[in-house]
Amino acid sequence: MCAKVASLVERGRPAVEADELLWLALERAIEIAGEAATQVSAATRATLPEVAWKELSAVRVVLAHAYHRVDLDLLWGIAADDLPTVAAALGPSSGTDDDSR
Fold first, then answer.
1. Contact present, 60 and 38 (Cβ < 8 Å)
2. Is 60 a catalytic residue?
């Protein structure tokens, strides 16, 4: 999901905002990344303290249940600033489109 979000961010915020389907794709990819974060074991989380696991999980809850309150600036910040940190922490395999990860 990090790679998918990165590909959307590369298009630039104006392009994503201009296309509702791209914006919805961005929201969904972040939601899936947040769900994946909830599945990471405590032991793995402890080895990657630079990842804001709790916050990423919380974003998933907002996107899934309080979608009417989504802050577009905050969502873009997560996509452009926070998820690259997650991808870097997870290593090279997080930058692929391998759905097994």
1. yes
2. yes
